[in-house]
Amino acid sequence: MIKIIKEEIEIDESLVSRLNVICDFCNTTPIIENGSIWKIEHTNLTYIEPHRIIINNKLYLAFNYSNEIYVHNLGKKIKLSELEQYIKTSR
Asked: Residue 50: which domain range?
C-alpha cells in the first residue's frame, strides 16, 4: 500500500506582510491557507502544494521566498510587485 505523508508549510511572515500591505491599498483582506509538502513514503517523489490566497473571491497561489504569484493556477504568473494593479483592474 502506498503511504502519502502530508506536512503543512507555514507561510513566510514577510510574504504575509507584503500581501497585507498590498490588500490594504486595495481596501480588501486576503484569506490565506498554508501550503503543504506531500511525500510518498519509500520513494523520492515529493509534491509541493503552494499557499492559497483568496482576494476578492479570486484564487492566487504563492510559494515562500518567491517574487511571483500565480493567478488561478500555475499557468499564469505575475510579479508580486504587480499584484496591487492586477487586483484593482480585475474587479
From this structure: 4-89
